[in-house]
Amino acid sequence: MAKSKRVHVAVGVIQNPDGDVFISRRHAHLHQGNKWEFPGGKVEADEDVYQALCRELFEECNITVQAAAPFTAISFDYPDKQVLLDVWVVTEFDGAVRQQEGQEWAWVPLHQLDAYPFPEANQPIIERLQAQTAR
Ligand SMILES: Nc1nc2c([nH]c(=O)n2[C@@H]2O[C@H](COP(=O)(O)OP(=O)(O)OP(=O)(O)O)[C@@H](O)[C@H]2O)c(=O)[nH]1
Ligand SMILES: [Mg+2]
Fold first, then answer.
1. Is 37 in the pocket of ligand 1 (CB under 6 A)?
2. How many folded domains does the chain comprise?
3. CATH code at 67?
4. In this predicted complex, what is the ipTM?
5. What is the pLDDT of residue 71?
6. Where in the sequence is the domain holding 72, given as residue range(s)?
7. Protein residue with its CA nearest to atom 27 in ligand 1
8. So what's the pLDDT on residue 134?
């Protein structure tokens, strides 16, 4: 079987002052269509992952990232695609978060994320976010 290339994806966890997380629903025709996601997208050849994160969050959510911290990296093989989700928590940004690509969106408290179907690769991200706040 030919080896396909793993897609490097910059993913941003954006929280509001209440700690709710911003998520969007992937368009039906896309890979993992109709599932919920954290904003982000593919790292282009001329970028590093942080540059990709900033670009994607501006394109998709209209915010200018001022600071972000690496959170986790998830390598996951779907039957049809291999991804590396490079997940960052956005700690400072300018602008108001606004879904720019016509996707359904929601601000969700961490403990309610389980009610939203995410791609399988996202499970450990969600667990880790929830573990951080469970005291
Ligand atoms: N943005 C994002 N992508 C995710 C998540 N979880 C996950 O498995 N992915 C996968 O990562 C891959 C790339 O994400 P993407 O579709 O946002 O890429 P992109 O914005 O560059 O899209 P484009 O190719 O339409 O320009 C997709 O195969 C998607 O299914 C997630 O939480 N957020
Ligand atoms: Mg995207």
1. yes
2. 1
3. 3.90.79.10
4. 0.96
5. 98
6. 7-133
7. 31
8. 60
pLDDT of residue 33: 98
Residues of the chain with pLDDT > 90, as a percent, come to: 94
Q: Looking at the domain assignment, is residue 97 inside a domain?
A: yes
> Is residue 57 situated within a structural domain?
yes
Is residue 2 included in any domain, yes or no?
no
Reduce the DSSP state of residue 113 to 3 states and report it: helix
The neighbour count for residue 129, using CB atoms within 10 Å, is 23
Which tokens belong to 55?
């670009």
Ligand 1 site-directed mutation target among 7, 8, 9, 81, most atoms within 8 Å of CB: 9
Q: Which amino acid is at 87?
A: V
Q: Residues 64-99: pLDDT tens digits?
A: 999 999 999 999 999 999 999 999 999 999 999 999
The amino acid sitting at 39 is P
- Residue 22: inside a domain: yes
**CB neighbourhood size of 31 (10 A):** 12
Q: Which two tokens stand for residue 126?
A: 């969600």
Exposure pattern of 85-103 as b/e (b: 16+ CB <10 Å)? bbbbbbeebeeebebbeeb
